[in-house]
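Issue: copy button drops trailing tokens. Both records pasted manually instead:
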Amino acid sequence: MSQIITGEAVVLELRPAGFAARALGLAIDVVFHLVLLVLALLGLAAAGADLDSAAARALGLAAVVFCLVAVPVAVETLSRGRSLGKLATGLRVVREDGGAIRFRHAVIRGLTGFLEIYLTFGGVAIAVALFNDKSRRLGDLLAGTYAVRSRVPAEAAARVFVPPYLQPWAAAADIGRIPDATARRAAQFIRQADRMAPLSRAAMAQGIAGELSAHVAPAPPPGTGPEDYLAAVVAERRNREFTRLSQSRQRNAETGRRLQRLPFAN
């Protein structure tokens, strides 16, 4: 797992692609590009039968550059790091900071790829990818990119509920003044708590509970743990918001029915 810290101090967890997945995706791309090249050469041979040898060689070289360099660069640029092989294997090429690649990254990868993949029959790409932790080929090292898995199992939704011993307190508590940003941090902590180290989990729970306590009244019963406190506040806030939206939807529906009635209809 690769961790990237953004400017807002948010930790992004990206899963670098394994060597086998990258090799399979690359093989699919190579086959596609070679088939495209063969079709282009056959088309040139059929259309330019009366050309001299110099013109035929120039057109053949242009077809090679177009199919093996220009097409991969254009596809990766327009798809933001996806190609036919990467779509099939569920991969995407990203920058080292986790962002989408741009034209210059695709150009570096395309030009280097022609050397390490086609001129050396993939030997350089395989040798370099085997000796780094993210299976990066030479073009990735020069461009500052690597491949990540874009198809990952969906996380199960965290079930948040008010602990039974806090239900009387939560039902009467004033939680309407909680800022949205603080509520989002509390909800995010609940979703990620199971994946955190015990010491970090306890410290973060205590800190977020302290932030919430400034906007919640009255204080929870003595002995309430910070994680139970967060769960109670988040769950009660969610329940109240759901009730409010449901009531608003019912009022709007009733108003709509009244407006659609004929005048003076019973």
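Record 2 (pasted manually too):
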Amino acid sequence: MKTISRIFYDMPVNCLFFLVVPLFYFLFVLSYNPFGISDFLAVGKERFTLNLILTTLILLGVITLSRMLLYILRHIIDLNWSLYIVWCVGEVVFAGLMFSILLGIGWAGVHPYLWVMTRCILILAGILVFPYAIISMAVQLYILNRRAKAPVVDEKTLIRFHDEQKRLKLIVSSEAVLYIEAEENYVHIIHLDNGRVKDFPLRSSMRALEEVLSRHGLVRCHRSYFINASHVDLVRKDTNGFALAQLDWEDVKPIPVSKRYYESVTALL
């Protein structure tokens, strides 16, 4: 099954979930009393308002933690739509379990805990299917609209980066790549995205990428660096005599050029 867009891992989308979903739950319950939830939250002791606030805070906490975890793992996991739906269902079920702990205390002696837990999960699922579906569809529409407006790119100029497991992680135009830096078991792909400099860490090695980088015009300038010569303004030497390539973006650090590669790099300028 097709994997979800990387946009679903980004912080703006995750913020939508952990802000909109709890707010929707609070307002929807307050306005429509779905599934007779007001009596359920009141637990027969006029605690509706208190328990509504507490369950909203629980939902906020669960989704915030879950979405932060999704953001942290964005470079490690690669979910397809089935697994992403399982992730979302897991959020709802876990939040329902937290609800049942709170409400189970109030309903103790009246209803068994299993009844309270099942009701919490089913009610929450019935309510949250709306914000989850709406946000997901809105993000998909945004992705489709952005693709429709995107300029046509020559396929031959695209570099496809795969990780150690041969999984495709990033597709970017060779012209947008500024440089590649090796760091332990990762390489950092420094590239331009809508006029902004971005760092995409990829679990791979320089040796594994060397052929595809050379094929797309990037040159090695150091044992830990490949550089896009078209973005180099000049190569200068610092006070210690070490050569540094100055790129055409102000907020990008100078890239070291070792003696071994100095002549081949300067010959391209």
